[in-house]
Hints:
The protein is mainly alpha-helical. Helix content is 51%, strand content 7%.
Amino acid sequence: MTIGRESLGSGLVDDLAARLPSVMCSSLAVNTLKSYMGALYRWAVWSRENASRPPLPADGRLFSAYLLTLVHSPSSAQQCAAAVAWASKFLHLSDPTQQVEVSRTLTWLKKQAVGGQKRAQKLAVTPEMIGDIVAKYAHAEASLCDLRAAVICVVSYVAFFRISELLSLRMSDVRFTGDESVTFHIRRTKNDQFGKGSDRIVATGYCACELPYSFVAPLFSCSWWRFS
């Protein structure tokens, strides 16, 4: 059975169509949406001030010129290109990132590095590094501030926390199950588009550099405790 516009009623179709922008925005992670909106705003301001043109539909040559102004921040250029591509597809406009000028400009920007130097490769954190932190800041006579620093490092390592997840933790998000495990409730993760949250369980004995329970427990009874 085919359901046409007439059978549904124009009012219902219009209402559903009006919801599309919010649905499209909700399909993105919160942080991604914020970065897209910021990138689109900066592109719109530059386009109007330098060419007196609306930002969309974006002219390929003009957009390439704008991207070149971001040569010292290649990641910002890539972010802007992704934002413009997303907005163009949503509005059924031509995507400038598919044009030769823009794609080659983005490729060139990727090859650029500040001062022409390659970025130093980040080294992985090892259990030995965490163990050194515990030995230095979580000894028997350590202050609560030192214990707090040690707990932050250990929790980040064993529970695979992003910095945003760690900074959002509160006392009510941490639950001890006897001496066997600790459960961390994450209110929202980077890829949690619907904000449902999730739990991350870390068993005691997971890591050789774990903090003794007797050192950690007092921190969560202190009213001043916050990760951020």
